[in-house]
Design a protein that fits this description.
heterodimer, A: about 600 residues, mainly alpha, Cytochrome C Oxidase, Chain A, 3 domains, two-stranded antiparallel ribbon, 16 helices, B: about 180 residues, Four Helix Bundle (Hemerythrin (Met), subunit A), 5 helices, about 75% helix
Chain lengths: ~600, ~180
């Protein structure tokens, strides 16, 4: 079509077009990562506040009273404020950190480069996706500053609590409405982004980049985007119904006969369970939207630092796809305690346990990739190994929770909290750490400090396991989640020490993140300068300069001759073979 | 929403793919909502099916006719330059359909069925309004297309195909909603 020489494009000159309203996928990726960084700092700070309340439920904190007089009357956090903090923590972390950074952040930056494209298929739409997400975050933050403050209904916003308005509790007036508007906006942004990822992957691969030559990272992003495109519309639909219940007097989610705050509610005809179905039909795929990019990054990094090809690449691709697919038919396992028929429960249970098969395939293949490799213990490698560790330790508790008989007891206890924090929170966060450490030189031309990275890794992994392993025991003892205080439960009194231990571990884990923050900002300016391919890796992002030029590949598009993970190919002079290396050009004749 | 110039990127294919994905996402939203509607029928004893009004048949006929005129315009646009008259007819019929839907809402209101009257009428208003919003987006696309079809652009056929794909989807979606609401 167009001659090659016409392909070169310079970056826009004006600051606004280049860095703010940019259509460059690399800039947009960094914008998403910065949005995620802000969300991570806010979300982590909120969890620190919660741990403070849980460990020392009756201690007065005059300083916090001065900062937040409404939340800390008399220096003690009010239970309602605890719930508001919990809601915003969950929402910020799930949507604005874990959904955006691994997929929209790193995916935006590296998916086009790894398939040899110069940008996404629809650059303007890409810019719109980011700014829509940004507006969604602003609207969510606005809910903190309206009368009554943030909603107290948790990130799952179950009705009737969330559907009735102010009468149901503080934050359930304007705060809850803003929350719903924020998430509806977020849905729109995510759908636009997902559409762009899918079209880019299918339509913009360079010559020779067949589907089965794509790096597993691209498979992860592509599958996550496909799941997002099909899951977010359902949440949007449900959110519209809930907004109408709040604003227009409908009763989609409200059953007859409720008395709230000593008032008889006259609405009737709907069912709060209906919301749970709509929410979890989105909610469970959402978990895989979060984790699939992490799986891709982990495979990518394990292979690079074992100097071995990914074990069973095709099985990995199939596993990614089947996890994405099965994710759509298991939502009922979030609702075993909702009174569903045992037959339906059994079906959902069996389907859920099925997810264990592709997950086990992935873990087996990761271990087999490591097996016999020449392992380089870089910080990125450690983080990726951390991902595998969390995926296993969070996955096995998933097998317990997938069984209705066990889940009915564990439901809404700290066992569930521990489970999803490990498998969804920590695993995904460690994949973000790994991706950052691994790709930082490519993105900014300088390395992050390996020493600080390893220090951060070891402190964090010890601290977070010190948080979440004991948390399972709290759950087994019957500690319910979303309670601000346990001192009133006689059977939990002798476990208060455990709660204090968890809080100290949480503070340590939180403090350790300062090392990471320092490492990021120090390395941006003072880090060791890098070369084009510092890790001796094989995929297309390592062919171009660090950081990549505005048009990625310049005048000529790369041509791909081989699979993504050709490490230690027998007969080759080096232990890595770039995807662009022509066949037979390397071997001595 | 223009695609970048790259050797591997075929913008026409990308736009087509994008439109199919929009349709897929839209289908998922309506699947969620219509499933909720069907599930809601089993919730309580007070479920009475909405009775179908003559105006529904008229509106349906208008929308299906507009799909036919769109198809006519699509074939014409591929052959000759300029704005095919069928496109303007489609645009008019689309506006007429929306006006008909508003008239239907008023009829429902006079009969005592409002958005918050009961599950049936709540779902009726939500489903038809969301469909109406999609139709409005389709009308914007039709107007954009009419603007772009003046003269002879090499991409006129592709653009027409993409917009007509969405417009036909509006008809299919409406049939789907009719079956769910009244069957």
């Amino acid at each position: 079509m167009t001659p090659d020489t016409a392909l070169h494009v310079d970056a826009p000159k004006s600051f606004l077009r280049r860095w703010i309203f940019s259509t460059d996928h690399k800039v947009i990726g960094i914008q998403y990562i910065l949005l995620g960084l802000f969300s991570a700092i806010l979300g982590t700070s909120l969890s620190m506040l919660m741990r403070l309340r849980l460990a020392w439920p009756e201690t007065h904190f005059p300083l916090l009273e001065k900062l937040m007089p409404e939340g800390f009357p008399g220096g003690v956090m009010s239970p309602e404020f605890y719930l508001a903090v919990l809601t915003i923590h969950g929402t910020i972390m799930v949507f604005f950190l874990l959904t955006t950074v691994p997929l929209a952040g790193f995916g935006n930056y590296f998916l086009p480069i790894q398939i040899g494209a110069r940008d996404m298929a629809f650059p303007v739409l890409n810019m719109l996706s980011f700014w829509t997400t940004f507006v969604a975050l602003l609207v969510l933050l606005a809910s903190l500053f309206v009368e009554g403050g943030a909603p107290i209904s948790g990130w799952t916003v179950y009705p009737p609590l969330s559907a009735l308005g102010k009468i149901a509790g503080p934050g359930l007036g304007a705060g809850q409405t803003l929350w719903l508007c924020s998430i509806a906006t977020f849905c729109a942004g995510s759908m636009m982004g997902a559409l762009n990822f899918i079209v880019t992957t299918l339509n913009m691969r360079t010559a020779g980049m067949s589907l089965m030559r794509m790096p597993l990272t691209v498979w992860g992003w592509f599958t996550a985007a496909s799941v997002a495109l099909l899951a977010f519309p359902v949440l949007l639909g449900g959110g519209i119904l809930l907004l109408l219940d709040r604003l227009a007097g409908t009763s989609f989610f409200l059953a007859a006969g409720m008395v709230v705050s000593s008032k008889v509610i006259t609405r009737s005809g709907g069912s709060p369970i209906l919301w749970q179905h709509l929410f979890w039909f989105f909610g469970h795929p959402e978990v895989y939207i979060i984790i699939l990019p992490g799986m891709g990054v982990t495979s990518h990094i394990l292979s690079t630092f074992s100097r071995k090809p990914v074990f069973a690449y095709k099985a990995m691709v199939l596993a990614i796809f089947s996890i994405g697919f099965i994710g759509f038919i298991v939502w009922g396992h979030h609702m075993f305690a909702s009174g569903m028929s045992p037959v339906v429960g059994m079906v959902f249970s069996l389907l859920t346990l099925t997810v264990g098969v592709p997950s086990a395939i992935k873990v087996f293949n990761w271990l087999a990739t490591l097996w016999g490799g020449r392992i380089q213990c870089t910080a990125a490698m450690l983080y990726a190994l951390g991902f595998v560790s969390f995926f296993v330790s969070g996955g096995v508790t998933g097998l317990l929770l997938a069984q209705p008989a066990i889940d009915v007891y564990f439901h809404d206890t700290y066992f569930v909290v521990a489970h999803f924090h490990i498998i969804m929170g920590l695993a995904a966060v460690f994949s973000i750490f790994a991706a950052l450490q691994f790709w930082f030189p490519k993105m900014f031309g300088r390395h992050m400090s390996e020493t600080l990275g390893k220090l951060h890794f070891w402190i964090t992994i010890v601290a977070v396991y010190a948080i979440f392993i004991p948390m399972h025991f709290l759950g087994m003892a019957g500690a319910p989640r979303r309670y601000a205080q346990f001192t009133e439960f006689v059977y939990l009194r002798n476990l208060q020490g455990l709660a204090t231990h968890i809080s100290w571990a949480a503070f340590l884990a939180g403090a350790a993140q300062l090392i990471l923050l320092f490492n990021i900002f120090y390395s941006l300016w003072k880090g060791k300068k890098t070369i084009d391919n510092p890790w001796s890796a094989t995929t297309l992002e390592w062919v171009i300069s660090s950081p990549p030029p505005h048009d990625n590949f310049g005048d000529t598009d790369p041509v791909v001759h081989r699979g993504p993970y050709e490490y230690s190919v027998p007969g080759d002079p080096t232990d890595f073979t770039l995807q662009t290396t022509a066949p037979d050009s390397r071997r001595p004749q | 929403m223009t695609a970048t110039v790259s050797r591997r990127n075929t913008p026409d294919k990308a736009l087509f793919m994008g439109m199919w994905l929009v349709i897929a996402a839209s289908c998922m939203m309506f699947t969620g909502l219509t499933s909720a509607y069907v599930a809601s029928q089993g919730l309580g004893p007070a479920w009475e099916q909405l009775s179908i009004r003559p105006l529904v048949f008229i509106n349906t006929a208008i929308l299906l006719l507009s799909s036919a005129t769109m198809e006519h315009a699509r074939r014409r646009a591929a052959r000759e330059p300029g704005v095919p008259s069928g496109l303007l007819v489609t645009l008019t019929l689309g506006i007429l359909f929306l006006a008909g839907q508003i008239a239907l809402f008023r009829q429902m209101g006079r009969a005592g069925y409002y958005l918050n009257t009961g599950r049936q009428s709540s779902f009726f208003y939500v489903l038809t309004s969301l469909h109406g919003l999609h139709v409005m987006a389709g009308l914007v696309a039709l107007a954009w297309l009419a603007h772009r079809l003046r003269g002879s652009n090499p991409r006129r056929a592709v653009r027409t195909n993409i917009v007509s794909l969405f417009w036909h989807f509006m008809g299919c979606l409406w049939i789907w909603l009719l079956l769910v609401l009244y069957a």
